[in-house]
Amino acid sequence: AFVSLKKQPFTHRNVLMFSDGDPSDFDNCKYLLEHFRSEKIVVTTMAVGFYVNSEVLKTISDGTGGEFYSSLEFSELPNLFREEFKRISGPPYIEETFQPLLANNQTMARGLTASEVPSISGHVVTHLKDKATIIMSSQRGDPVMAYWRFGLGRGVAFTPDLLPKWTHNWAKWNGFGKLLRQTMKELSEGTKQEMSVSLVQKGIDLTLKIEPGLSNKFNLKKANISSPFWKTKTLALSHSSDGTFETQFSAPISGIYHAKIEDENNQMVCESPISVNNSQEFSQEKTNLRVLRRISEKTGGDFFESIQSIPEITIPPSQETPVFISFWQVLAIFGLLLYFVDIYLRKANTFGISNKSELKGDGGSSSDEIYRQLAQKFSNMAEEHSLKGEEGEAKRYYLRAKAFYIKAQAVKEANQMWDRYKRFEKI
């Protein structure tokens, strides 16, 4: 965290640390704490649970200007997160006097001009949603008023308040009432239903149907049908009892036709392409049983003319049927028995092991020697990378050597590795 934040040009740099406050080498961590303090990186510590060392965590947070949080319940973590976020981010609003910029006066702000919009004293900082339209903005570009659609719903966001604190100048503005009325009207009006055009085909005979929609009050009169195969045909539309308009015509040639719908004033209100397919496959209304029968005969299969004619499939008595049986219950019982046997053997000291020291024997000294050898190996590799000028690799191997020296209980050598690691930080 320190290496990553040290390179960042931010004004505020914070670290959120979860710990039990009980490090194995806190004396060595003090050097790193000095680096955080010198770089002005704030460390906030959080302790959750019963067995924590609060003094160490308070030392870290107080030494870097952070906060210390503690709780006995893990469920309190979200509240601690929110409290720390509020502390480091500040209030989510800006209080400054400015005149909003009018970006769109075609919807809620119809009839308003940019010069007449009064100044406001503050607003909540927000981010413009995708596909949202901004109506007013601040000098910084933050939304002051915006609206958007989601499906059939519509919403408006007004980031200042409607109270005297931020919009006290708007109370004397005549356009404020107009803006609110037009906003409520825009939100309460129903969404217009689009006109739809459909085609019903029976052979070469076609029926064109037009549904004008609930909110469209058109009185449709005629449809102009054009295609590459003929000149434009003008057909009269009849009004059906279900509210749709329809007309019939014949199209012996497959292809894409174009329909233009006009109202009683000869104004085009809708146009749509319509597809006509006169394939013989679509002209047959019954199932071709002869073709299906030939397919089954050629492939050696069976042909059933109806669902009722399918015989019930049974397994011959001489044929064995595999049955899968769940075996996990048996394994679970066997594992439980082994568990109790293991407990009995340990309690009865069947194998003659009286304590843990007998298991170790001289293994402690041999393991320490192995750790020392590994630490020396990583120390040599760090020196080689240091001579080559590879600072990053040298630091990484010094830290590994330090870790193995600590495992070998060689504190002096571990401190030497840490001093060599810090040497690169001072360069």
Task: Describe the overall structure.
The protein has 427 residues and is an alpha+beta fold. Helices cover 36% and strands 22% of the residues. It has 12 helices and 17 strands. The protein has helices spanning 2-6, 26-38, 54-64, 77-89, 174-188, 280-283, 289-299, 328-347, 356-360, 363-387, 391-407, 411-426, and strands spanning 14-18, 42-48, 68-71, 93-94, 101-102, 123-124, 133-137, 143-150, 153-158, 196-202, 205-211, 220-227, 230-236, 238-239, 245-250, 255-263, 268-276. It has a 4-stranded antiparallel β-sheet with strand order 5-7-8-9, with no helix packed on it. A 4-stranded antiparallel β-sheet has the order 10-11-15-14, with no helix packed on it. Strands 13-12-16-17 form a 4-stranded antiparallel β-sheet, with no helix packed on it. The chain is flat. The relative contact order is 0.05. The model is unreliable at 353-363 (pLDDT under 50).
Give me the strand/helix succession: HEHEHEHEEEEEEHEEEEEEEEHHHHHHH
Low-confidence sequence ranges? 353-363
Rg over CA atoms: 41 Å
Number of helical stretches of at least 4 residues = 12
Strand count, sense and barrel status of the largest sheet are:
4 strands, antiparallel
**Strand order in the sheet with the most strands:** 5-7-8-9
How far apart the termini lie comes to 19 Å
Approximately what portion of the residues adopt beta-strand conformation? 15-25%
The helix-and-strand class reads alpha+beta
The averaged pLDDT comes out at: 79
Shape, per Cα inertia axes: flat
Share of helical residues: 25-40%
Number of strands: 17
